[in-house]
Write a structure and sequence with these properties.
heterodimer, A: six-stranded mixed β-sheet, 47% helix, B: six-stranded antiparallel β-sheet, five-stranded antiparallel β-sheet, 16 helices, 18 strands, 21% strand, rod-shaped
């Protein structure tokens, strides 16, 4: 009887083992049996300081690709007037009080930044630019942007290579708040670091204002005229002014940071020697990837640095550069 | 330890029940078959799935190739129409040339971005829809222009790029694929060489690929003969360094399906070369991440195999129990019989025919054995009784002869009163001797018998001896074989008291110790020599004693009867010392009326 009972137990144990195996298997692979719970897409608001332009187009494409890869639903918005700080602020408040889980923001000015600092604790915000007033201290949103120190260094190094010891006239619209302020300080710092002979002369322009006669007089006074524009509008105004005045007596070498469709035309016409093009697609993709990861409870990655390319007439036909300059719609 | 375990395993093997053996054998056979079947089916399914993936990819790239080829042939047809239908037909300065070019452009405006005709040196002759270049351009640097003039007999296809020759503003950049060829131009009867450009909208090509939904594991891209990517669903990620593609390797593959390892992924790469252009359509399927349907099928297969295995185990258990249970019950019955717990086997009504037959056969065998055993017991009992009766019957004739002899002697000598007492005692003696035919009587009855006998013998041997009884009440109630004390008393009288002449004393004792009963007959006669005692113990006493005395039934008779009835562990002991006396002790079991034997 003892033998029988021991052997019966063995068989019953075997049957129980199979039952447990089946139950365990079903539990482990329940998604295959009952279907994986479909995760709702993450609603994320994207507030840009301006819409349009090839750079923004590439940015959006990068964001959309990341949204597809990481199951996010993006809502894009931008103020009617580019750089409208108050308008952007209102948008930010509206989005924060809506259903959005996170915001990707290109802050247009100090008002938006003030709101970011206040609202930050309610909804995760990821900025596409550093705070110009503070070096992104603790508590400020993560930032995915180009490394402006690297851009400054690359630009000034190239200018120095092309024209050693020539003074550089930096032309910009001072109303373009956030990236510009940082860029100015970075340029000054890098110029001092690269060479004491490298002199920068800053020419701030009022909103939509063209460079004045004093600017052109200054260019004429230089043996080699070098201009660095820090926004697409300043570049456009400069090139139009040069066209109007005739380039016979004045043909400066123009270098540009930030661009639009006109900037490429000026490049093709050799009015501009070089444009720094940030990889907008890269920035958009990394921004959404980072915020989505953060919202899904993954450890927030360190702020990402976006790559950039110096594009001139020689390399603008490269297929990868063409994708940057002319994002496919 | 090893030896111990081996020994245990060996013992376990030897102790395997039929049910266990059946269960394990069936289960193992079924499980092994199932696993083999699953393994074979799985391999077959994997091969089939792989082949299906290959076939699907082949079909898909063929479909894409068909669409792409149709688009490119359309563009080539436009180029041919322009060349053979317009440029060759009309003079360069004729209005008809421009009108016909405009007409052809209008007809194909959806797929064609622009048309242009250049002189050998790059001067624009005519263009649709723009009419002129948007800026002064040196066309010698344009790849499509160089290719057309380098190999004049061919039509050349460029890689996708942004056409910036025509238009203004946003309209000035369009992603196109340029189809260029060298053409013969006629002006005033003179023939020149020129270049015809047809810009195919790149969106047309992209649309072909974008409309294909291959799921998460597969995608299709397009490369030229050098491996440059013309279209890729993740082109921007690749350009940004956020994704990688094995396009250079793919350029080296011929048409067909190839397996490759790229990064951590095993991939099936299907290649189809697009006619004329040398471009390659590349379909990639990640084989290390099987599609959802395949994964589901695999999961369900494993699930059903597990279910089947569990059912097989349960079925085997049930079957083996059904087969083994009647045998086990039969075995238990036989074991009970072996242990003496039962004498009969119950007849089973359930089980297979073989088991029922076996059960009946064993039942019948056990019945026969039982009957045989009962017959043997009865025969032995009968034989024992016969022997007892024979032994017992030896007592009475001697005693009767002696007593009657004494009575005759007393009558002859005029002792009538003594003769009367003797006859009375004799009558009581024989009445007790009958005892209703019983062999077993109580010690009390046996003592009464002895007392009667002693009364008779005292009359006969007056003043020769005295006697007394010391019997405990517990001993009186015990059972004894009839007429086992009287022969000993008779021996004490004839061999102890008579030779003594006078002053003899006989003491009869009976007592119990534990489970034993002892009855002792002591006399103070002349006793026996050790040789006489040994002769008695060896069984030669009967003849010896009988021959020496001519009376007494003998010690051996008493011992045999005791052992015949109670077993060999009981019997009789003699102790005697010359000139002191003799003591004969009977050892019997302590049994009382009502006790089971």
């Amino acid at each position: 009887m003892k033998v029988h009972w021991r052997q019966d137990r063995l068989i019953i144990g075997l049957a129980l083992f199979f039952i447990l195996l089946i139950v365990g298997f079903v539990m482990v692979r329940r998604n295959d049996f009952f279907g994986a719970p479909k995760e709702d897409p993450l609603p994320i608001s994207v507030i840009l300081s301006e819409s349009g332009g090839p750079a923004n187009e590439a940015l959006k494409q990068g964001m959309l690709q990341a949204a597809q890869d990481h199951n996010c639903e993006l809502v894009f918005s931008a103020p009617n007037t580019p750089g409208d700080d108050a308008g952007e602020r209102a948008m930010l408040r509206r989005e924060i009080n809506g259903v959005t889980r996170g915001v990707i923001l290109d802050p247009a000015g100090p008002l938006t930044w003030a709101d970011v600092l206040e609202i930050n604790k309610k909804v995760p915000i990821l900025s596409l630019n550093e705070n110009p007033d503070k070096a992104n201290p603790k508590g400020l949103p993560d930032c995915v942007s180009v490394d402006k120190t690297a851009v400054s260094r690359a630009l000034l190094s190239r200018i120095q290579e092309d024209h050693p010891a020539a003074p550089v006239h930096v032309l910009y619209h001072e109303s373009l708040y956030p990236p510009l302020k940082i860029m100015l300080s970075k340029l000054s710092a890098e110029a001092a670091r690269l060479s004491p002979r490298l002199k920068l002369r800053f020419w701030p322009l009022k909103d939509k204002e063209a460079p004045g006669s004093s600017f052109f007089e200054a260019l004429r006074a230089d043996k080699t005229a070098i201009v660095l524009t820090l926004d697409a509008a300043a570049l456009d105004q400069l090139c139009l002014s040069l066209d109007r005045q005739g380039a016979a007596d004045l043909s400066p070498d123009v270098y540009a940071w930030r661009f639009d469709g006109h900037s490429i035309t000026w490049l093709e016409r050799d009015r501009v020697r070089l444009i720094v093009v940030e990889n907008g697609f890269n920035q958009g993709y990394l921004a959404v990837t980072q915020l989505a990861g953060q919202l899904r409870g993954k450890t927030p990655a360190a702020p990402k640095t976006v790559n950039f390319v110096l594009i001139d007439r020689d390399n603008m036909e490269n297929i990868s550069n063409q994708y940057l300059l002319f994002p496919i719609q | 330890m090893g030896i111990f375990l081996r020994e245990r395993a060996r013992r376990a093997r030897n102790q395997r029940s039929l049910q266990f053996t059946l269960s394990v054998t069936f289960t193992l056979a079924a499980v092994v078959s199932m696993l083999f079947l699953t393994f074979s089916l799985s391999r077959r399914y994997n091969a089939l799935a792989r082949r299906t993936v290959y076939q699907d990819n082949q079909r898909l790239v063929s479909q894409i190739n068909y669409s792409l080829d149709a688009r490119l042939r359309d563009a080539m047809r436009i180029s041919d129409s322009l060349y053979y239908g317009v440029i060759k037909k009309y003079d360069l300065d004729s209005k008809a040339l421009k009108q016909n070019m405009a007409l052809i452009y209008e007809s194909n405006a959806n797929s064609i971005s622009d048309l242009a005709l250049f002189e050998y040196d790059g001067v624009l002759l005519t263009a649709e829809p723009y009419g002129q270049l948007n800026r002064p351009v040196t066309l010698a640097g344009e790849p499509w222009f160089r290719s057309a003039l380098k190999t004049i007999e061919n039509i050349h296809f460029s890689t996708p790029y942004v056409q910036r020759l025509f238009g203004e503003g946003q309209d000035s950049f369009r992603w196109v694929i340029s189809i260029s060829r060298a053409v013969e131009l006629t002006r005033g009867g003179n023939v020149y060489t020129g270049v015809l450009l047809v810009d195919l909208n790149y969106s047309e090509i992209r649309q072909i690929f974008k409309s294909i939904d291959m799921g998460e594991e597969s995608y299709v891209y397009l490369i030229d003969e050098r491996g440059e990517i013309l279209y890729h669903p993740r082109q921007q990620l690749i350009n940004s360094g956020l994704a990688m593609e094995n396009n250079r390797q793919a350029a080296t593959y011929g048409d067909g399906t190839h397996e490759e390892k790229f990064g951590d992924h095993e991939r099936a790469v299907t290649i189809k070369t697009v006619g004329y252009t040398g471009w390659k359509i590349v379909s990639v399927t990640d084989m290390s991440m099987p599609n959802t349907a395949a994964a589901s099928i695999r999961v369900y297969t494993i699930f059903f195999v597990l279910i089947a295995m569990a059912l097989i185990v349960l079925a085997d258990l049930s079957l083996s129990q059904k087969l083994g249970r009647p045998l086990r019950l039969l075995e238990e019955e036989v074991r009970k019989i072996e242990r003496g717990e039962s004498r009969e086997i119950s007849i089973q009504t359930k089980g297979s025919q073989e088991v029922l037959h076996l059960n009946k056969a064993i039942f019948s065998l056990m019945r026969q054995q039982d009957e045989l055993r009962r017959d043997i017991v009865a025969q032995q009992e009968s034989k024992r009784r016969s022997e007892l009766d024979a032994l017992q019957s030896q007592i009475h004739p001697h005693f009767l002869y002696n007593t009657l002899d004494s009575i005759v002697w007393m009558i002859e000598s005029g002792r009538y009163e003594g003769a009367t007492q003797m006859v009375t005692a004799l009558a009581r003696f024989f009445r007790l001797s009958l005892s209703g035919g019983q062999t077993i009587i109580t010690v009390r009855e046996e003592m009464e018998q002895v007392h009667n006998y002693l009364l008779i013998q005292q009359v006969r041997f007056k003043n020769v001896f005295t006697y007394r009884f010391e019997v405990t009440p517990d001993a009186e109630a015990c059972l004894s074989v009839k007429l086992i004390v009287q022969p000993l008393v008779e021996n004490a009288i004839y061999h102890g008291m008579v030779p003594l002449g006078e002053g003899g004393e006989i003491l009869i004792r009976a007592w119990t110790e534990g489970d034993d009963l002892y009855i002792e007959v002591n006399d103070n006669g002349p006793g026996m020599t050790p040789e006489q005692i040994d002769a008695l113990r060896c069984g030669r006493a009967r003849g010896a004693l009988r021959s020496s005395s001519g009376s007494g039934i003998g010690v051996a008779n008493v011992r045999e009867r005791i052992q015949l009835y109670f077993g060999a562990s009981y019997g009789l002991e003699i102790s005697s010392e010359a000139d002191v006396g003799t003591s004969v002790r009977l050892h019997l079991p302590r049994r009382k009326e009502g006790d089971s034997q």
